[in-house]
Each structure stands twice: as structure tokens, then as C-alpha cells.
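Budget justification note: compute hours in this period were largely spent on complex prediction jobs such as the one shown. Inputs:
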Amino acid sequence: MADRPGGTLVAYRALLGAQARSQAAYRASFVVDLVGNVGATVFDVLTVLVLFGVTRELGGFTLRETMVVVGLSAFAFATADLLVGNIERIPRYVRTGLLDAVLLRPLGALPQLLLMDLPLRKVSRALFGLAVWVTAVTAAGIDWTPARALLVVVAPAAGVVFFGSVFVATATVSFFWIESGELANSLTYGGRDFTSYPVTVYGGWFRALFAYGLGFAFVSYHPALALLGRADPLGLPSWVSWAAPGVAVVAAALAAAAWRFGIRHYRSTGS
Amino acid sequence: MGSVNATVAPFTTSNVILWFRTFWAIAASGFRRYSTYRQAAVAGIVTNTVFGFLRCYVLLAVAGAAGSAAGYDRRQLATFVWVGQGLLTVVQLWGWTELADRIRTGDVVGDLLRPVHPVTAYLATDTGRAGYAVVVRLLPPVLVAPFFFELYLPSRWPTVPLFVGSVAAAVVLCFACRYLVNATAYWLADVRGPLVLWTLGSGVLCGLYFPLRFLPEWVYQPLWIVTPFPSLLQTPLDVLVERDPTPVQAALVAVQVCWAALLLATCRLVQRRAERRLVVQGG
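Corresponding output:
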């Protein structure tokens, strides 16, 4: 296989095709899943609208400004969840020994795991996130410049890369601690909730840890500031707001390193 | 080809003491069963705490400079969020598909052959689980929160018994809801549809995402009476933070108890209907 690069690609395509066929085989169940998945994101966005029914501004941001943050977070998380999110099932793969089987095949372990379980039902959620993002950007009254036009495309992509890195990095914990269960959720779904609001909402060391220690401020808050042309109320210089793509690249490198470390130190659970 | 009728055996004795002893024994085994997952509990506590911080900051930002939102002051909002994070696992809103799985695999026959009604047996197990969750999942976030946020302590003595009763009613009610959702497996090959509807509906309508009183009055008031959802989480939390005077608190708990009784009765009815048509393949 290694001497035919085309062969690897064919193998991956076969994996993906088998997944798509098996998931679409039960039409009604698939439709239910599509609806259920979009529902969760719809309610997240509705929650923001309800909160703005009670208050005029949140952490110094109006509804229109906050929606840019919400749209960016919703799209980035939903798309990363679609592409990489199922890696959170790795404790099951470890427990059942499927990971051992995957490691024996002459293909990369990570791409195999992702393609074997690609949750096509989450497509609906990603599309809804995209719709929220487009609507929010259109309604926000942005003063368009070439740099901002570029950021509108790059920022969501960087967000996807960032959330994908979080998914992979937290899943790596399962190599060492199989029962870690929900722990990864606090960073993945917690990260989604954190990035759904301007970071000015949060306070103290909690904000410092999530926003800058873990880098979640660069997913939606800083790109939104750059697009809206607002100075950071927390006093960071304006170039920081353009740093999002760089942060995503660093996150991806760290996640890849963590994954490789995890795979190398993985010991099968035995029988 | 012989066939065995596996319907629930009628009570051979009406001894109430015996019934309570059985219920207690099953509940205690439920407590022990769930207490074996210690590492998962630690991971869960960390997750609940992180979400406590997230939701608390957001709601405090909603209260903003004015210091109150929809009749809750800052301390009440903080208590609402933190106790809510703990109660979430006590009532166990999500993630229970045991009955549906057993129906699909046919293992449910084992439940039907026992001399205890399945609804009673599952309720007893769930009560034990909830008891364990109170100790391990409700207390930690409530003890962590005061280090970072100002919480609200009830100032009237009737609030305490009302809160305890309200939590108990919420546990029974949530169990009944989950049992009904799971019981659709008797009729459907795939229970994902009902499960998805339940997961989506309960999360929003029980007050987990935001206190329901953030909605206009004409929305949340009918919701409270006509659906069981606000009784799952919003009622115990509103009772605890004394959002209303004592008579209203008592009335809200009464609504909860009515819903719990009604849905528990529905569980038994559904179970009886299901047993008439249940066919388990294989030997």
C-alpha cells in the first residue's frame, strides 16, 4: 500500500463510502438524527435571544454584535464536531479493542477512526451554524475592508481547526485514563459555551484560564472585535484580534503532538 | 411449541411493610451499583463545575449593572445555576436508555418474571441512584461555588422541607418521563426519535439553559401547568431561592406532585398495554 499513494486514498474513500451507505440505510432514523442535531444548535442560539429579551446588552455588547460571536462559535464548533467530534468515542474503541485492529492496518490511525465513524447526521448542524454566521455578519453593519473580507472566511476555518484540535487533544487523555468519561466535555462543549459569548461576560481567573490559557478567546471573540472594528474593552492591542489563525495553527500542532504521544504510549487493555 | 405468559405476577400479599422492605432493598442495591463508578463521578463533577462557572457568569452578566433579571437578584441567579448543575444529575435528565436496551435485546423478560412490578423495581433502583447522586454530584458543586460566588441562603423555614419534597417529586417525575420515553421501544424498532425529542424538549423547557421566567409570562405560565418540564428543575430551584412567597411555593410543589402521580400511573398503564403485545424471540 505504501508504494501506491493512490491506493491509500482509495482505501479512505471506501471507508467513507461504507459509512455513508450504512448511515443512510435507515432513512427515517437518519432524518430524525438530522432534525435532532440541528435542534440542539437552534436552542443554543434561541437561548441567546431569550437572554437579550431580559437585558439590552451582555458584557458591553449589543445583540447584533453578540450574534457575530454566536454565529462564529456555532459554525466552528458544529463543523469541527462533524469532522472530528466522534474521536470522543475513543474510550469505547480502547475498551472494545477496536483501536488495536485499527493500529494493525497499514493506514493512519486518526484518519481511519474519523472516517469509520463520520457522523453525517451532524451536517444539518453545521449548515445551520453557517446560516447563523452569514446572517449575523450581514446584519452587524460591518465596515468592509479587504482585510475584513478575508477574515470573514479565515476566522471560521481557524475556529474549526481550533475546535478540532481540542477534540483530538482531549481524546488523547483516554489513552491513559479510560474512565475519564465526561471530562473531555468540559473542554469541548464547555469551549463551545464559552465562545458563544463575549469574554467580557466572564471574570477572574476563570476568564484568564479559558480565554488565554486555553486560547478560546481567539475562536470567536477576537475575530468578532476585528470585524466590528471595536477596541478590546479588556485593553489588549488591536493586532491581537487578527491573531486567530496563528493560534489555530499552534493548537493544531500541539494536538498532533499530543496524539502522537498518546498513540506511542498506548497499551492495549488486553483481552 | 409451548409459550409462557410472562406478565407481571399479581401481588400475593398486600403487606405494606413487606413492600417497603423490598423497595428499600432494591434502592440500596441501586445506590451501591452506581457508587462503583468513582472515576466517572470525579470526571462528572469537574464537568458540572466548569459548566457552573460558564452559566453563572452569563446569567450574572444578564443581571448586569441593574443587579437583577426577571425578579432574581445576583445571589439568587448564582444559586439557581450551581444547584441546577447538581440537580441535573440527581434527576438524571439525560442518558438513561437501560429499559429501551433491555426491551430491544429481550432481556426485559427477566424483569417481567420477577415478583415486583417493573415500574416499581426500576423506580426503586432510580431512587437509590438519585440518593447517591445527591451525595456525590449535588454537594460538590454547591460546596465549591461559595468560594467564587455569593450564594443565596433561604430565609424562611418552610422553604427547606418544600425544597426537599420538591427534589423528591422531581426525581420521581423525571424517572416517569424517562420510563415512558424508553417504553416506546415496545412499539418502535428504534427509539432514537422519542429520545431526541425528549433530550431537546427537556433541556430547554425545564429551565436548564435559562430560568423560564426570562420568557414572557404568557409563555411560561401555561408551560408550567400543561407540561411536566418546568417541574423537573425549575420548580425545585425557584423554591430554593424563594422566588415566590410560601403559598406559591407550596402550589408549585403541588403541581409537581400531581404530574409525578399522573405520569407514574401512565407508566403502569403503558407497561400493562405493552405486556399484552410483547413477543420475545428465541429460547
